[in-house]
Design brief:
1028 residues; alpha+beta; seven-stranded mixed β-sheet; six-stranded mixed β-sheet; 32 helices; 40 strands; 34% helix; RNA-binding
Length: 1028
RNA sequence: GCCUAGGUGGUGGAAUGGUAGACACGUGACACUUAAAAUGUCAUGAACGUAAGUUUGUGCGGGUUCGAGUCCCGCCCUAGGCACCA
């Protein structure tokens, strides 16, 4: 899974300089190598971390899981252990709390890197994987992680991928019943077809399937039936445009493609990526879109990861509306174009229809013959689309098709344009252009001079008047006055009276807004040569509170846009009480935008000076009988009134389930001579051996090079890298089972992963796919929870000490082997836990790690001393510290705040070092530290305890010792700290006050002053407020 | 452009609206030592002060509060995600 590096030759990396090695503390008596290897040998022999199967224990289950690693050729780097040690800390603590803990490890070894490695080094991928796994395992074991090694899995093992294939076949043999909201066997769909065709069938399908009757179904040839069923199966074969990488000779998933300098390139290698149509296997993940979305509500995942999945699924509710087409030379009413919109409320603002070039091409293919220039544009733009991923900054282009569409509301003729900015794959490939209320349509309309029709009026209610009902109604104008040099006229009222505003005014009886605007211009500023450019048709409803007059106004406002011919001026005729209240100032429109804060004035500025569309919610206007509705309500009403249908769309696409590669799970299907697909009955269908697993470059997988395979009609693509990792956590529940992927009893017992730790970068890949498979298996009663991972915590990256990502390119990779050699595994683990918050990216520091080592040395020395002194007396201060530590560590492990748990342990150590302490009480300290530094604590523990530490009971904090007797609290005067007092815990207000007022430094401050009040927060603070 | 998370000493970082900088690294001084390392003790945000102490200080500007790193408004910067999804 963590396959970030490009696999190259295995080469020992030693980033630690000689000078660093010197910094390692001198070993006195503590010898981690000796202790750790002895303890690890014992673990290897006694297997204390074996998880019990459900029948063999009465303990409650707890399943802690680290993401399965991809065993790359370079071995572990120091980033890997971050999630492994975290999982290990949780697992060890949960065991002591009495749970039957499952903490397994395995390898996900199919995929590109192993294959690249094999090609470059001329070794079979199987051998390369075995080598890499051996390296990984040696390194993992040196870290002292408490895995149940008996449950180890490897996704490339035929005994494992047999079940990956088995699940694939189950998907292939299923469709999604939209009424029951679950996967159902394809057999039952066939029997429905046999009884009544596909009319009213509640089955999720790709695209629109033509309706057929019972008879028609029965008359279909086997091949036709196969093709029809392919539209419904959850694993299906189809043709799709994919990301094709010529250099790698393979198709790439969207998340494997990144933006390069000249268009998209492969994440691995940086080779150019183009679009290509190719035959593919897909998984119909879109059938589960809603459940994948709603399931997020029931899991404890980081919000940002949920957000990423939410955006990726991209649910949007909208409407499909048909526009009848008027094609020159063809009879009317025959053709129509369907658009998808989430803003059906803006329907009356439509001034053009925009279609994707791909849709235009399909019309041409169906017999439409447009002007040559239109056909040429269509072809060109399709080619552009195929070359690159979409770029939002690209200029919008388009041509008029000569076709008109009839507006379903007004009956008006609306031009249809082919454009480059409509996406072919989303919605219907056609949109209604509403430039007044959509930024993209606005940009396009500006470019081609298309009309802009405003049909949503914003509603402005200032928050300070929201609750009021006593409005005085007034008709007003707001004028945007432009000087010949483009500057904007503003009135600066100063900070108290509303700051900078545009020119406003009240419409007197019998006046038009234009007249009002010009009159006010003259009266307030003296300018006389203004020309009216435009007046808003719409009246904006603006409720505000005039502080100076103490009145709430409902201002029904019209906008007026005025341009001055020149700056000629007469005397302004201000009323006496207005004089000197404001200054007339000319500013740039950008300046105005910055300083004007009134929303309505800003809107006038946006509309006239910046000319940006209004995309928010408001009131429907100039839309016939719908005017006056709120835009939210109007969505549904207007869509239905014009015969549209409400639909839900998703951004997420079906997942391509194929790689044109050798090193993957074979697809267990074959085609006979008639191209009929059959299942492979005996699983696993093993990957055949071959010497040439290089890509064919044709789009077929390397398996096509094997004559016997090809002859057998087998699929030449293999499954993608994420196939094996989509269900591996279930295999751990019963890894040795030969008959099932896991026994029913074990699945019921373990249920799901309780805590899953790994990288957040898998949010839209592995994590989403695993959730999908889990839901699918649940539909068949094979698992019993809706979600596979109850809690997920994403670790932060460990950066190199230079703050960059660790990479061979920079030569800054830290190898855990080196760290363990110098400092020992316990120190490495402790430092990884201590270095910072688990979820944050933190640079590795060769300087700071010595602190962790020093702590362990002190612990070790104290342990030996405790053993030698053998006292029964423990100082009260030590007991208190230990019991507070129990509290803190228990809480911190539960919330993955390992760094603060370690800090508290260090604090405790500082107290214990100089205290007298009994073996019994020191044992408690060892227990609490055990999850972090298991070797040294187990070693010390076993000096005087018979029972093993890992089965000892997690200690509980005794209230007797955690309760405080005295507290030292601060005394503030007017919020500033002036002294401390130590008073009994939970002191009364009176006694605290008394002590506070007696404090020496405090007395200095209050002498001769009047005390206004005293605030006392128990056990926190005393604040004395005095008259300054 | 949009969404999400952040911005605290020389460094990693800590802090339920209540004594900012816990813990650790580094640095300085001292002890031990022929010496160095290791270890131990003390100090360590900045400025002023012999000191007691004072001022100032959690990206910037405002606000709420007896009291703001924490809450609210606006801005700047960094990281991650999405990016013509109608």
């Amino acid at each position: 899974m963590a396959r970030a590096q490009k696999t190259q030759n295995i080469k020992k990396i030693s980033p630690l300089k000689k000078s660093d090695v010197k910094k390692a503390p001198m070993i006195t008596t503590y010898d981690p190598k000796k202790i750790e290897s002895a303890i690890q040998k014992k673990w290897e022999k006694e297997k204390p971390f074996k998880a019990f199967s459900s029948a063999k224990t009465k303990k409650k289950p707890f399943y802690a899981l680290s993401m399965i690693p991809y065993p790359s050729g370079t071995g572990l780097h120091i980033g890997h252990p971050r999630s492994y040690t975290a999982t290990d800390i949780v697992a060890r603590q949960k065991r002591m709390e009495g749970f039957n803990v499952l903490n397994p490890m395995g390898y996900d070894a199919f995929g590109l890197p192993a294959e690249q490695f094999a090609i470059q080094n001329k070794v079979h991928p199987k051998k390369a994987v075995a080598m890499n796994v051996a390296t990984f395992e040696r390194q993992l074991k040196k870290l002292g992680l408490s895995f149940d090694w008996d449950r180890k899995i490897n996704t490339t093992d035929p005994e494992y991928y047999k079940w990956t294939q088995w699940i694939f076949l189950k998907l292939y043999n299923s469709y999604y019943d939209t009424k029951k909201q679950k996967a159902t066997s394809i057999e039952s769909l066939i029997s429905i077809f046999e009884k009544r065709g596909n009319k009213d069938v509640s089955a999720y399908a790709s695209g629109e399937v033509q309706e057929f009757s019972k008879q028609e179904w029965l008359q279909m040839t086997p091949l036709q039936k196969q093709e029809t069923l392919m539209r419904y199966r959850l694993a299906y074969e189809g043709i799709a445009e994919v990301n094709w990488c010529e250099e790698l000779g393979t198709v790439l998933a969207n998340d494997e493609v990144v933006d390069g300098k000249d268009g998209p390139v492969s994440e691995r290698g940086g080779y150019p990526v183009t679009k290509k149509n190719i035959r593919q296997w897909f998984l119909r993940i879109t059938a589960y879109a809603d459940r994948l979305l709603s399931g997020l509500n029931e899991i404890e995942w980081p919000e940002h990861i949920k957000e990423i999945e939410k955006n990726w699924i991209g649910r949007s509710e909208g409407a499909e509306i048909s526009f009848k087409l008027d094609i020159p030379g063809q009879s009317e009413n025959k053709h129509s174009v369907k658009v998808f919109t989430t803003r059906a409320d803006t329907l009356f603002g439509v001034t053009f229809i925009a279609i994707s070039p791909e849709l235009a091409q399909s019309w041409i293919d169906a017999g439409w013959s447009p002007d040559v220039s239109v056909a040429r544009y269509t072809k060109q733009t399709i080619q552009e689309h195929q070359k690159a991923t979409f770029d939002a900054t690209q200029k919008k282009t388009g041509v008029y098709t000569g076709v008109y569409a009839k507006h379903p509301g007004t009956g008006e003729n609306i031009p249809v344009w082919v454009t480059n900015y409509v996406l072919p794959g989303y919605g219907t490939g056609a949109i209604m252009g509403v430039p007044a209320h959509d930024e993209r349509d606005f940009e396009f309309a500006k470019e081609y001079g298309l009309p802009i029709k405003n049909v949503i009026d914003p509603v402005y209610i200032r928050p300070d008047v929201i609750a009021r009902t006593d409005f005085t109604k007034k008709h007003k104008v707001v004028s945007l006055v432009e000087a010949p040099d483009g500057k904007i006229l503003t009135m600066n009222w100063g900070p108290k009276l509303g700051g900078r505003l545009l020119l406003g005014g009240t419409i007197e009886k019998g006046e038009t807004p234009e007249q009002t605007a010009l009159r006010e211009l003259k009266e307030e500023t003296g300018y006389v040569h203004g020309d009216i450019v435009s007046v808003s048709e719409e009246t904006f409803d603006y409720k505000y509170f005039a502080t100076s007059k103490n009145v709430a106004y409902q201002a029904l406002t019209r906008f007026v846009h005025i341009k001055l011919r020149d700056l000629e001026k007469e005397e302004a005729s201000l009323e006496e009480n207005e004089k000197g209240l404001f200054k007339v100032e000319w500013v740039s429109k950008e300046h105005a935008k910055k300083e004007i804060v009134e929303v309505l004035h800003l809107y006038a500025l946006d509309l006239y000076a910046f000319q940006t569309p209004f995309c928010g919610e408001g009131v429907i206007a100039r839309s016939g009988e719908f005017s006056g509705l709120s835009s939210l309500d109007a969505r549904k009403v207007i869509a239905e009134a014009v015969g549209g249908t409400l639909v839900t769309r998703y951004k997420m696409r079906d997942a391509i389930f194929a790689r044109q590669r050798y090193w993957g799970e074979p697809v267990p299907l074959y085609k006979d001579a008639q191209a009929i697909i059959h299942e492979v009955k005996k699983l696993p269908l093993t990957l055949p051996n071959t010497a040439s697993y290089e890509p064919t470059g044709t789009g077929e997988g390397p398996l096509a090079n094997i004559p016997a395979w090809k002859k057998g009609g087998y699929e030449t693509n293999t499954m993608p890298g994420w196939a094996g990792s989509s269900w591996y956590y279930l295999r751990y529940m019963d890894a040795a089972n030969k008959k099932k992927f896991a026994d029913e009893k074990e699945i019921r017992y373990w249920k799901h992963v309780d805590i899953y730790l790994g990288g957040g970068e898998h949010a839209t890949g592995h994590l989403l796919y695993a959730r999908f498979w889990h839901k699918f298996l649940k539909d068949y009663g094979l698992v019993h929870t809706e979600e596979p991972f109850k809690k997920f915590v994403a670790h932060g990256m460990i950066l190199a000490s230079d703050g960059r990502k660790m990479s061979k390119r920079w030569g800054n990779v830290v190898n855990p082997d080196d760290v363990i050699n110098i400092y020992g595994a316990d120190t490495a683990r402790l430092y990884i836990a201590f270095m910072g918050p688990y979820t944050e990216a933190i640079p590795w520091s060769e300087e700071s790690i010595v602190g962790s080592r020093r702590f362990i040395e002190r612990l070790y020395k104290k342990g030996l001393r405790v053993n030698a002194e053998n006292t029964t007396k423990t100082d009260l201060s030590a007991l208190k510290a230990i019991h507070k530590l129990i509290q803190k560590v228990s809480l911190d492990i539960a919330s993955c705040s390992f760094n603060t748990a370690v800090a508290k342990a260090m604090e405790t150590m500082n107290i214990l070092e100089s205290a007298s302490i009994s073996k019994k009480d020191f044992s408690v300290f060892l227990q609490v530290l055990y999850p972090f530094v298991p070797h040294v604590t187990e070693y010390l523990w076993s000096q005087w305890n018979k029972e093993p530490i890992h089965t000892s009971k997690w200690p509980r904090a005794d209230k007797k010792y955690t309760r405080e007797e005295n507290v030292t609290i601060g005394v503030q005067i007017n919020g500033k700290l002036r002294g401390n007092i130590t008073i009994p815990f939970n002191s009364s207000e009176d006694s605290a006050k008394k002590h506070a007022l007696e404090e020496e430094n405090v007395r200095k401050y209050i002498e001769g002053k009047t005390i206004l009040k005293v605030i006392y927060v128990q056990n926190r603070i005393v604040n004395i407020v005095i008259k300054p």
